[in-house]
Amino acid sequence: EKTGKVLGEFCRCYKEQFGVALFNSVRYEIEGAGGPQAQLLHRKVPLEDHVIYSGNIFQYIEENKKWRNRFCVVPHNYGLVLYENKLAYERELPPRVLVNSAGYKILTSVEQYLELVNNSLPGVTPKSGHSPILKCPTDFPLILWHPYARHYYFCVMTGKEQEKWRAVFQDCVRHCNNGISEDSKVEAPAFTDAIRMYRQSKEQYGTWDMLCGNETQVLSNLVMEELLPELRSTIGPRLKGKAPTACHPPPLVSDAVYRMVYELAKAQYDAAVARCEQERPQLESTIRTDMDQIITSKEHLASKIRAFVLPKAEVCVRNHVQPYISSILEALMTPTSQGFAEVREVFFKEVTDMNMNVVNEGGLEKLVEYMEKLSHLAFHPVKMQSCYEKMDQLKLEGLQQRFDVSSTSVFKQRAQIHMRQQMDDAVYTFETLLHQELGKLQGRDDLCKSIQRILERVLKKFDYDSSTVRKKFFREALLQITIPFLLKKLAPTCKGELAKFQELIFEDFASFILVENTYEEVVLQSVMKDIMQAVKEAAVQRKHNLYRDSMVMHNSDPNLHLLGEGLAIDWSEEYSGQPEAEPAADRRRRAKQVVSVIQDDEGALPYGVVAEALLQPSSPEPQEPEEARPGVPPSPQGAVKEIREALAQESLGDGAEERLTNGTDAGEEGVLLAGAARGGVTPQGPAQDGDGVQCATAASPAPGEDVPAGTGTQPACHQPSANEPGEHGERSPPRPGATTESGEGVQTEF
């Protein structure tokens, strides 16, 4: 009922905004808008057939309160995929769990987690002296917390591993949060404007932390924001047990509700999008036919609204916004510019080190090896971490409360995404220019000089593009902070009077001109001049290496962008000297097992042995961390025997297919696909995300659905009965309304 009500209002807003967005898109296509041309090339598909990271990690299973060793893979679309073990991954068996990390927070201590849980449960305060909710067998936990969805609990063996996994998980969150495709010039603006209009109708202005993920995830968050307080008031009084125990059920209950909301929201949103797309040809025909009349009508409406609103808006800007613009800009510029400077430094260091190593170690063969690594530098979570960490310094202090900014995370993640894109553009431009030069080189000395010369050219281009990207980011961030504040301030005196302007719009053009949108444009114009001036002055003073707007690089490399249109460079294939190409299946297998953006320098920890030594299947709960000594088997003979039997069972793959099922016949279930999401997969084929990452995974399930058993080359999985043994021969009696461990479930599609 709640989902139907919220989606009904939202879909009405979406239909209105769709016409406006379509008009703006067609107008931009016809009129165009000149801007600084990017000097660096942009890679179309950065991570095709590559794995970001993979490795062993312990996961806590809530259904049976035990820790299990899992093999976690982070593919190029940044979903977290958990397999039974590495063998299951190599055999392409279905994974245990798929997690879309949009909206999650990465915590590195149980104390942080308990604080968030307690804050999300008003009135529930655990008493001191009680045993903790979660007993972690090591001192290095990693917890994924979400306000509405299921929580995930992991731990690793060392602090270095914890930092590495934390960087990987944060990269996943950053990418999945950015789930609404910017390539869509109509659907994306229509969706985000409809969300904003809906929240403003509820008197909710300012930034919103849960505008993250794909469209259906955002809508689910919108519903849960209203539904969760009612859920707590209904369920809270009925919780039983001690305070620590009573804290724990709500995340699972909330997750079950979240999955239901997701399915309902997806169905209604997809239906609304389909209706708009059906009307699109007729609307576009009207726009192209009557473009001049629509523009004239809109300008007439804007002039009337401007005469009414602008005097009040200018007073508000002068008194409440203008004095703080320079402070906000400085707070934004310092960490952002330091982050981009670190990107430049990391790129320079990697190329310089490569150049020295190539000269010392043997020319072209070593160059190919290093270029393979360099080509994915932007997607190396650990090496990029020093750049991303600079944004942690962003603090708006008193300005945050004044302008109703709930959190700075929106701006931090946006800047970090820009950093990653600029790094990849620099790397791609460098390798394109170097590839062009290789045919002309005579020896090792020529190679060294060429690399140095190309590096200097790319750094100049990087400096120019970095300045352009940062100035645009500063302007957008300032608008994001000030416009909601102004709208909230002006609402009591202006919003009620807007209805009288409706009669100025011709009925034929009512789908393309909205009074509310025109009013917001007028408010934006009232502050835009001050924002542009502040950014311009910062550039004139050369603050943080910003370039002036008058500095424009016109076609410094006229043929460079033609080079970028060619096929992607595959260094290993082109220069490996192999007489025959590998079969596609072998290349795919090799890429999955070997080609990884992160190489584990210290070698793999003996997770298989450690996991069984720490977490014996027969133990009711995890043992103390003192026994978690990597590589040291337990002394009792019985434990050694159990470990040997378990390892033999895993190596033989005995019952692997049965253990990997999710408890239902996935073939019976309809698989919901994410729509127009950067991390999603459309029915037509692989989706292209906003960062140029091709998401080539098979159709992935929505919350509450099981992983399809027969996708690709995966064998169909057996559906176990309720009396069938669980993992390692355990028998898990079924409980009404509960899932066994084999039903750990799937988070959200990616």
Strand arrangement, major sheet: 4-3-2-1-7-6-5
Helix/strand structural class: mainly alpha
Q: Biggest sheet: strands, sense, closure?
A: 7 strands, antiparallel
For the termini, the CA-CA separation is: 27 Å
The level of helicity is 40-55%
Low-confidence segments, given as residue ranges, are: 126-131, 242-249, 584-605, 616-636, 650-750
Taking Cα atoms only, what radius of gyration do you get, to the nearest Å? 28 Å
Q: Could you tell me the number of beta strands?
A: 9
Question: Could you report the average pLDDT, rounded to the nearest whole number?
Answer: 77
Helix-strand sequence: HEEEHEEHEEHHHHHHHHHHHHHHHHHHEE
Strand content: 5-15%
Count of DSSP-assigned helices: 21
Layout: helices, strands, pairs:
Layout: H1 2-31, E1 51-61, E2 66-75, E3 80-83, H2 86-90, E4 97-99, E5 105-107, H3 110-119, E6 141-145, E7 152-155, H4 159-177, H5 187-201, H6 215-235, H7 243-247, H8 249-289, H9 291-361, H10 364-374, H11 381-388, H12 398-402, H13 409-438, H14 444-494, H15 515-540, H16 560-563, H17 571-575, H18 584-593, H19 607-614, H20 637-652, H21 656-659, E8 687-688, E9 694-695
Antiparallel strand pairs: 1-2, 1-7, 2-3, 3-4, 5-6, 6-7, 8-9
